[in-house]
Amino acid sequence: MVTIPPQPWPTGLAETVEPLVRRVLAPNPSPYTFTGTQTYVVGMADGPDCAVIDPGPAEAAHIDAIVAAVAGRTILAIMCTHTHRDHSPAAAPLAALTGAPIVGCAPLMLQVAGPRSDEAFDPTYAPDRVLADGEGMRGTGWTLTAVATPGHTSNHLCFALEESGALFTGDHVMGWSTSVVIPPDGDMGDYMASLEKLMAREDRVYHSAHGAAIEKPRQLVRGMIGHRRQREAQILRLLGESPRPVSGFIPEMYKGLDPRLIGAAEMSVTAHLLDLEKRGAAAHDGAVWRVA
User: 8-36 as b/e, with b when 16 or more CB fall inside 10 Å?
Assistant: First the structure.
């Protein structure tokens, strides 16, 4: 189980993580967000303009902290990697306050019956411009290019800072935890393909929305791919032993799991099972899964 570091955390402080990047931690820690969502301000400290990546929750104190980190520069784009509620709700009030356009991932709203174990999607998100893979934004001394990485959500984007070799990975790759893939929008096959896509890149460092900077990104991604393949192998082994519902996988696969994360674990197993079903390796009769 992941341990959240003890407080104090740098909530609300603008930390310089590299010459073109400042990071501001939102006050929304949880088992799903670690110490909170990290908003990034990209641009020259003494330049005329900047971009804001993942503005986070619509909390007044956090929006004030972002404005302080911007330090009078013009915000050319408020850029969202995806639209979970810990990432994009501050986009609308920040845009209203500054006049900046909202740019980045496509809007997404799901009508899903029953409880969800992930952060719900943001119904207020209304981008002025949606970026396709390879499109981007440019300012004084900085260029951000969209890298489409569906899987965690179908609309997930990463943003590459061309001048420094950094990649802002949102929730696709995080140093503190693996990303949760929640059907029906989250798709394990897409997620694995997006990890392979990042493996083919040569980014210097990852700045994720939660946790510390990732200094050896390809090594981490390689490990994440291996971890997911190991999970898939566990599922196939357990299916081979006996058919079972999704809840029947959890005690074997997630020993010592924080009870608050059981729902997320069940959704992750479901995502693997649905992917195996697409590939003809698993099937289900109602809620009970079996080898195909």
Answer: eeebbebeeebebbbbbbbbbbeebbbbb
Give the list of residues 6+ apart from residue 216 with CB closer than 8 angstroms, or none: none
**Contact yes or no for 237/196 (Cβ under 8 A):** no
**Amino acid code (one letter) for 206:** Y
Does the annotation count 187 as an active-site position? no
Task: Express each pLDDT in 227-284 by its tens digit.
Answer: 999 999 999 999 999 999 999 999 999 988 888 889 889 999 999 999 999 999 999 9
What is the rounded CA–CA span in Å between residue 266 and residue 271?
9
Tokens representing 110?
Answer: 């799901």
Q: Token pair for residue 254?
A: 């997630």
Give me 205's structure tokens: 């460092």
Question: Looking at 86, 118, 203, 275, which residue is catalytic?
Answer: 86
- Residue 201 is given by DSSP the state S
Q: How many CB atoms lie within 10 A of CB 41?
A: 25
